[in-house]
Design brief:
39% helix; alpha/beta; Rossmann fold; globular; 12 helices; 304 residues; eight-stranded mixed β-sheet
């Protein structure tokens, strides 16, 4: 059962007046992440939109302790903090590393892979806005094929998006999940579950970005919902190897798996404007194939 948004804790750890862009999907997601952590964590943060949101010393919009680190060292820094807490006998304090897609799937993947292989006691959260948004919307390896960015302006990115959750599963990570700020109850439940586990845990959050994706700031929540309803972002968790759909995706699957047309999602964003019809067809086929694979796995693991 997904936590109802009306039942979420009222306490706020993200204060008003932060430097995030209007309509920032990260700010929405971070609010609910902090509610789930309940001030029982230390965070490690690399250069990213999140450092902008948090503010510069001595001013901060966040009332939780965090450590700013270098771009490639988020997981390594978190590993060191976790080791220090163990030495002090304070393992009840969780260590949470949080980075964007650039700091996770690109620059930070070496340290993350090492930490995952060692099964370090760290919760790693990737907020994926599908480009280097903090520095002007340059492509990352998490940018979907065909998307126009500052470094792929003419024909869009020509490579497929890297599947980071699959990479983490190959590391035999005990808990892996996808989430969206548009479904806060599902996001809250997953962070809460991951918080209370031991070993490496990984959550991949799909974060709509109004300036980077070129859509009106009022549409952040609806864009996130479209990603789920079209199958671009299936909501799921993999717990000790067992796969299950969650939240809205579970409802869609139980209803026969009827997804909304992909064009509803693509046409709502300027970054897909002028997308080659062949690439759009390839995108659609990729979404369909992945949905079928996940649906079969959900049914197999649930015994349905």
């Amino acid at each position: 059962m997904t936590t109802n948004i009306l039942d979420l804790p009222e306490v706020e750890y993200l204060q008003p007046g932060n430097r995030a862009c209007a309509g920032c999907g990260l700010a929405i997601a971070y609010r609910f992440i902090l509610k789930a952590l309940d001030n029982k964590a230390i965070m490690t943060i690399p250069a990213s939109c999140l450092t902008v949101l948090g503010g510069m010393y001595p001013v901060s919009s966040v009332s939780v302790p965090w450590l700013n680190c270098t771009f490639p060292s988020t997981a390594a820094t978190a590993t060191g903090v976790a080791a220090g807490l163990r030495a002090l006998g304070r393992e009840q304090i969780r260590v949470v590393a949080m980075a964007g897609d650039g700091g996770t799937v690109d620059i930070g993947i070496q340290a993350l892979s090492g930490a995952a292989e060692r099964d370090e006691d760290v919760l790693f959260i990737c907020y994926d806005n599908e480009a280097y948004m903090n520095t002007g919307t340059q492509r990352s390896s998490s940018t979907p094929k065909g998307v126009r960015t500052a470094t792929t302006p003419l024909h869009g990115k020509q490579e497929h998006k890297k599947d980071m959750s699959k990479i983490m599963e190959a590391h035999q990570v005990g808990y892996i999940a996808t989430a969206s700020p548009s479904y806060p109850g599902d996001l809250y439940d997953k962070v809460l579950k991951a918080r209370d586990r031991k070993g490496m845990r990984y959550i991949h959050i799909h974060v709509p970005c109004p300036p980077g994706w070129a859509f009106p700031t009022r549409d952040t929540i609806s864009l996130g919902r479209l990603a789920v309803e079209t199958g671009v972002l299936p909501l799921y968790e993999i717990e000790d190897g067992v796969f299950r759909f969650t939240g809205k995706t579970k409802t869609i699957a139980k209803g026969g798996g009827q997804l909304r047309p992909l064009d509803d999602y693509l046409s709502a964003q300027g970054r897909f404007k002028g997308l080659d019809p062949a690439l759009e067809l390839e995108f659609q086929e990729g979404v369909r194939e992945r949905w079928q694979q996940f649906d079969a796995r959900d049914k197999a693991d649930s015994g349905a």
